[in-house]
């Protein structure tokens, strides 16, 4: 895979050296593109605002460029403020930059679907959802990101990625719901897949629901196929895992021969009724500032629902036992509560907001957020997928609860 456009190797080395010696002083100008849309956006990043945090002097830019890659679109972003790095999921690759957008390295060669990612502050590693639907294999990929120091590292052979298999997801993805003895596979146009499960995407560390100061657990949200003709797919489904003993389960991943090493069951399975969406929770993020769990989705298509693009689960409310509505057999489960603010749909009582964030949403914990976006760009006849993130701050307003922070010259 080629490097990001306009980034010469020499500039990369210089930037990396600058970063190694004085992280806070790494110059955003070191590898600024000289032309094209990236150059315009680099101007944003050239004037980061001072914003001390956690006793450090990191300067958080209004804009961070994640590069442009011969992959599918950006799926997630997570920020390591302590060390000054940003990690980007580009579906088939993990990209590491610094806060100024200087490229540090990549992990490539993923043949499945790397979705949302999150940093575990305890072990400094990045965890991401990784799907192989044809093989009926679903993983949390664990990246030893400290070791990522060059472009083109291989996910299988360079020792920087392991994977933990989630059997629970396989069981729900492959469920023969109509009992005809046939699993219809990776298609929305079927009665199969329990809860409409299409796999997994949104992931985030945070305390157990209802336990704001509890130890971090890894929450993993299902993808859910869009389907207007069935009633059992109107919940987001979130699995809870305690990852503290995962080192004994982690294995390197051979994609030609996918392993099945992982926990038998999650610690918990939770349901939150939002109405059917298109591929479930794209980005899940615990926000320590509000105590809420943010969920960015591609909007649903059922006329009976408001089809909001953004939901929040109230992290202070304990799950309550109740009916998981719409299932073929009556079923009870642990139900989560949507934050009682924002828009309200009178027909269903569902609360939500209108906001993007499906391509990446990182909460820094102080009311500051980075929200990723991106799209195709032409690179001399080839199409690359560019990814970038803008800084936002919490407002709590309706319909969008965040406002974008512009670089000083844009005000
Ligand atoms: Ca079937
Ligand atoms: Ca996604
Ligand atoms: Ca996330």
Task: Describe the protein's architecture and organization.
This protein has helices at about 10-20, 35-45, 165-175, and strands at about 50, 60, 65-70, 75-80, 85-90, 95-100, 105-110, 115-120, 125-130, 135-145, 155, 160-165, 195-205, 215-225, 235-240, 270-275, 280-285, 290-300, 310-315, 320-325, 330-335, 345, 350, 360-365, 370-380, 380-395, 400-405. With about 400 residues, the protein is mostly beta strands. It has one domain (about 10-410). The strands form 7 sheets. The protein has a 6-stranded mixed β-sheet with strand order 13-14-15-16-21-20, with helices on one face. The chain binds calcium ion (3 copies). One calcium ion binds near residues 202 and 283.
Tell me the layout of helices and strands.
Elements: H1 9-21, H2 36-45, E1 49-50, E2 59-60, E3 63-69, E4 76-80, E5 85-89, E6 94-98, E7 103-108, E8 113-120, E9 125-132, E10 137-143, E11 153-154, E12 161-165, H3 167-173, E13 197-207, E14 216-224, E15 235-241, E16 268-273, E17 278-287, E18 292-298, E19 310-314, E20 320-323, E21 332-335, E22 343-344, E23 351-352, E24 361-363, E25 368-379, E26 382-394, E27 402-404
Parallel strand pairs: 7-11, 16-21
Antiparallel strand pairs: 1-2, 3-26, 4-5, 5-6, 6-7, 8-9, 9-10, 10-12, 13-14, 14-15, 15-16, 17-18, 18-19, 20-21, 22-23, 24-25, 25-26, 26-27
């Amino acid at each position: 895979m080629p490097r990001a456009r306009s980034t010469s190797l020499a500039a990369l080395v210089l930037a990396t050296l600058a970063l190694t010696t004085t992280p806070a002083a790494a110059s955003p100008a070191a590898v600024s593109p000289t032309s094209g849309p990236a150059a315009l956006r680099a101007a944003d990043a050239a004037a980061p605002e001072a914003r001390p945090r956690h006793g450090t002097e990191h300067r958080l830019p209004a804009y961070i460029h994640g590069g442009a890659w011969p992959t599918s679109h950006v799926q997630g972003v997570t920020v390591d403020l302590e060390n000054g790095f940003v990690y980007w999921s580009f579906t088939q690759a993990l990209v590491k930059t610094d806060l100024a957008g200087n490229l540090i390295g990549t992990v490539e060669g993923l043949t499945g679907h790397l979705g949302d990612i999150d940093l575990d502050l305890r072990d400094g590693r990045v965890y991401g959802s990784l799907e192989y639907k044809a093989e009926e294999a679903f993983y949390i990929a664990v990246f030893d990101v400290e070791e990522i120091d060059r472009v083109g590292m291989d996910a299988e052979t360079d020792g920087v990625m392991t994977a933990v298999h989630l059997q629970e997801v396989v069981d729900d993805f492959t469920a023969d719901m109509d009992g005809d003895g046939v699993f219809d596979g990776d298609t929305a146009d079927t009665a199969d897949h329990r809860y409409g499960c299409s796999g997994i995407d949104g992931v985030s560390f945070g305390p157990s629901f209802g336990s704001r100061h509890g130890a971090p657990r890894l929450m993993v949200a299902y993808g859910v196929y869009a389907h207007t003709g069935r009633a059992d797919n109107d919940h987001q489904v979130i699995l809870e895992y305690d990852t503290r003993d995962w080192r004994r389960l982690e294995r390197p991943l051979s994609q030609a021969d996918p392993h099945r090493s992982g926990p038998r069951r999650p610690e918990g399975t939770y349901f939150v009724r939002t109405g059917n969406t298109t591929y479930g929770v794209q980005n899940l993020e615990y926000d320590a500032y509000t105590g809420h769990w943010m969920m960015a989705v591609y909007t649903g298509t059922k006329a009976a629902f408001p089809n909001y693009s953004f939901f929040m689960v109230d992290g202070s409310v304990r799950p309550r036992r109740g009916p998981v509505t719409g299932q073929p057999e009556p079923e009870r489960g642990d139900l989560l509560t949507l934050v009682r603010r924002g828009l309200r749909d009178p027909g269903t009582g569902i609360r939500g907001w209108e906001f993007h964030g499906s391509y990446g949403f990182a909460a820094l914990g102080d009311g500051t957020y980075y929200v990723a976006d991106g799209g195709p760009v032409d690179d001399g006849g080839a199409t690359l997928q560019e990814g970038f993130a803008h800084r936002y701050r919490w407002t709590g307003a309706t319909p969008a609860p965040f406002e974008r922070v512009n670089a000083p010259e844009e005000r």
